[in-house]
Structure of GntR family transcriptional regulator:
Amino acid sequence: MSAAAQTSAGGFDRVTDGPTPKHAQLREILRRAVERDLPPGSPIPSERELAERYHVSRLTVRSAIGKLVEEGLLARVRGKGTFTANRRMDLQLYLMSFTDDMRSRGKVPTTELLDTGTAIPPAPAASALGLGDRQAAYRLHRLRRADGVPLAVERGWYHPGRLPGLIELDLTRSLYGLLAEKYDIQLDYAWQTVWAESADRETARLLGIRAGGPLLAFRRVSSCQGEPVEDMTSWYRGDHYQVTTQLDRNNPDSGRKANHTKANDGGTR
């Protein structure tokens, strides 16, 4: 830890006997050091050093650190130690693409196509896309990375009548850019629902996290000139992302804006 963090931890914060469990006290001491003093990528002392400094067991230290790893404040690197994690990125609540979003952050986006085909969509997707009973749609499953780090898994359904031949194209590139180029479709409106979810084994494997780890899930139904085109659900790593919204007590529509998205010009997913 930095000198400032050590002074704060050693001089003003200590673990004591009392009603608050020691692991919880230590967790908050470490949290303050991480949030106030340590930049992303900084190493923290070893379990042995922390146990000696705060006069607690290594099991107490391991419990405190484990909770901060789950919260995304710390990250363990096998063979190297524990480090402060990169700060979470804000997910944009408007129709901006993953590709453009990552590039705007100075990162290199890449896409891996995991699966594609034609199938009967589940009832909610069929209804959202305006498809008839037992009418097939295009299915798309992709993994999104930035600077080689897996950040999101996407599973989506697309209207085949409006996007004929979609699954025959190169779907590792920007999808919204492809729609504009190939079909002259600029998605201009969407509604979006956000919820928290735990990673199942398959999603955890793809994202390189433990099963049960935190995810932010987004379901977005996008349209062009009132015609639905896409029903996409994306699962983002909870240790890399957060959602920030603006709430206005004097504007009753502010809450609705978090659940509906309006396209910006030239957005490409």
